[in-house]
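Re: Re: token formats

Sure, here are both.
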Amino acid sequence: RREQLDALGFVWDVQQLRFAKFCSALKLYGQIEQKLSIQQTSLSAAATKSVPLKIPSKFVIPRSSQWPNRLWGYRLGERCTQVRQKQ
């Protein structure tokens, strides 16, 4: 039965799935912010700097071609606040 559920993509660890979604959203946010930073500054200056992830607490992933559909509406800012408060 487990093999049947695995074949359907059954999620055994919901917490791990949520964490993977959070990490994916953070990574993509960083990539998008870095592109914006490069567009706003000289290419050589931006290439040497990493962009810190300063995500507003009310940031919600928009319906945009920059973001995958599965993340649209994801409350990334709220999730970051929750993670920070658990420390």
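Second one below.
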Amino acid sequence: SYPGTFGDYKNPAEQYDSPVLHTVTLKGLQGGETYEYGVADDSRTFQFTMPAAQFPFTFGITADVGQTQVSNVTFQTLKAMQPHTVLLAGDVSYADGYFPRWDSYGRLAEQLGAYIPVMYCPGDHEQFNGEAFVNYRARYPMPSGPSHSSNPLYWSRDIGPAHVISLNSYSGTANGTLQNEWLREDLATRFDRRRTPWLVVMMHVPWYNSNAAHIGEAELMRQDMEWLFYKYGVNVVLAGHTHSYERTSPVYNNRTDPCGPVYLNVGDGGNREGAEAFGFSEIWLPGSGGEVRPEWSIFRQATFGVGQLDLLNETHAKMYWRRHACFNQSANAPPSHENFNAENCTTTGDNSRNATLSEDEVVLVRPSPERCPNQAVLPRGLAAEDLVAAAAAAMATAAVRQGLEEEAQGVCAASCGAGELLNTTACLCLSVADLLAGQGRRLLESLV
């Protein structure tokens, strides 16, 4: 009924005036305290509790939410979970250039976001179709300034007993780019495992994904940054993009590794595009050697659900995922293709061995520093390998000094093996594990 066509600047229906967006910075908030607040021209009173650095601490985790009946259940489930904070790994409103849908998303998400802190990272649906992150940045500003990021699309913050880093899959990641340089600085200067034992990273596009959809899209980012994750001992990585749930074993460089992070792909929040289980002959891919699945893929399912990450103490966490809907493409399916019989449903085309399971639960254990030096509690700005190198240099200097003084007397004649360092003062050979525990640790502390 309007003149002009869709997308035409002469079409009055295409003109969008944003409502007034208010951004308020609250200062002096105390962890564990509950605060009430109100919004102008709204008679309701809301409240939230400021997350405290204590155990146990609960994160609700999701991504690719959108605005469907399943999305609504996702918000309801997250609120009922009563987490201290929700982490949403990108693809928020699925407005896709139709800006009024940002407003309708805000009304839908209010049931959660008005009461529980929700922290976001951007996804591709915040970028394409003319979005260019503009609506996302205006409505959901994140703490880029306090974390010394020059770009509001990546940030970090201590949240409870975790240092959370949020990266942008669509900013530069190679050496020398602003995001790469910022990540290095953040890990070296703002992450302190003495204060936050858990290190969590959130991004949109997964690095480890055995679903045929979006496979390999973040490979360059992985090659650019994975070594930093490993060096500083990232514990958990959250991602979305693929509309399914997948949990990996600890992994590094495409192989299981006890010192690598666990990857949780939680792009199963409920968006209108459906679960990622159709359009391919087999949605879940086998391993490179023909195995049923890659060695690092532990649980995978193409349905809708919500994740809960409970940090129990400094070394143990529990990950719990529960399905609340399947995607039904059968001939008698409803137009929305949603099947809320969560206990018994399966998504059409899901060839995973886990397709019929309604939940996944596992205890995550931070490995000991003796086993994984990247988990050591070290002075800020130093990684385990940095301290070992410093210790090696210091002990080499001491060896030269003492050798000059005592060479004739043959005070220390120990012969160390590969990968060991000689402490000439004690006449001991120390391994990396020794350097991070017991006598070697005391030596390191004296060196730094």
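The chain has a mean pLDDT of 88. DSSP finds eight helices and 20 strands in the chain.
- S.
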